[in-house]
Amino acid sequence: MFKARMKFAKEGRARFISHLDLMHTMQRAMARCEMPLWFTEGFNQHAYVSVALPLSTGFSGEWELLDFNLLSESVPLNAVEALNDVFPKGLRAIEIYALADGGMPIRDIAWSKYRVTWTFPEGAPAELADAARELFSRETVEILKRSKRGENLVNLKELLRTLEIEETVDAVVLTAVTAAGNNNLSPEYLTRAMNQYYPAFDLSYANYHRMCVYNGEMQEFR
Predict the structure, then answer these.
(1) What is the DSSP string of 13-26?
(2) Could you tell me how far CA 166 lies from the centroid of its own chain?
(3) 67 exposure class (CB count in 10 Å sphere: 0-12, 13-18, 19+)
(4) Residue 212's beta-bridge partner residues?
(5) Helices 128-136/188-197 angle, 10° precision
(6) How many Cα atoms sit within 13 Å of 39 on the Cβ side?
(7) Are 181 and 87 in contact (CB under 8 A)?
(8) How far apart are CA 38 and CA 24, in angstroms?
(9) Rounded distance, CA 205 to CA 146, Å?
(10) Other CB atoms within 10 A of residue 56 CB
C-alpha cells in the first residue's frame, strides 16, 4: 500500500456536487477504471479518499487535491486518462503522483487564491470597482465570521494577503489570496463585506473559483 495524491478540477455543473457526493463519485470512478484502491478492513469496509479543503457547494476550482491509498507499488499507467474517461462532465483529473515521502502535509496549507466574479446582465455599475478598492484598502474591515464556536467579529484584512480588482463591461473580478486552514476565510466574505459597507450595490450574481493553494511560504501546494 502506498499513498497517492490527485490534482483535479471541479467546474461547470460539477460545482454543484456536494462534498459527500463527490467522495462517492470519486470512488465509483476509480472502481470503473479498475484503480487498485486500498480498502479498510473490518465489517464496514470503505476506500480511503480524502479531499483537502473541500469546496463549498456551488464553488468551482482547478487546484483541488484528493489523497488516497493504492494496493499497487506505483500509480497505474494512463491513470489520469482512465479517470477522465469515466468522470462526469465538469470533473477533470490533472495529475496523479505518488507521495513517496508523505508529500506536503495538509496541515501546512495556509492560503488559497480565488477568483471572485460579480456579474451584471445589464452592465456593471460604474462606481463598483472603485468602491471595492476603497473598502479593501482600509486597514480595518470588520465583519461577523462564522466558525464552529459561533460568530465572531474579525478584521477581514488580517485574513487577506493580496487583492486585485479588475472591471469589464458586465462584471467586476477580484483575484484574492485568502487565509486557509484553521483560519480559513471563504471568498464569500468579500461579497458580504461589500454588501455590508456598500449596500446600494446589488451583488446577487457572484461566482467563486479557486485557482491555487499555497503553504505558509507561498509555495504552490503539492
Answers:
(1) GGGGS-HHHHHHHH
(2) 21
(3) middle
(4) 113
(5) 100
(6) 11
(7) no
(8) 15
(9) 22
(10) 12
pTM above 0.85, yes or no: yes
Across 71-199, the runs of DSSP E, i.e. the strands, are 91-98, 109-119, 142-147, 150-155, 160-167, 171-179
Residue 208's contacts (CB-CB under 8 Å, 6 or more residues apart) are: 56, 58, 59, 60, 114, 115, 116, 187, 188
Amino acid identity of residue 61, one-letter, is G
pLDDT digits (tens, 9 = 90+) for 165-199: 999 999 999 999 999 988 899 999 999 999 999 99
Please tell me whether residue 159 adopts helix, strand or coil conformation. helix
DSSP secondary-structure letter at 109? E
* Model confidence pLDDT, tens digit, residues 37-63: 887 776 766 778 889 999 999 999 999
Taking only the tens place, the pLDDT of each residue in 102-129 is 678 999 999 999 999 999 988 999 999 9
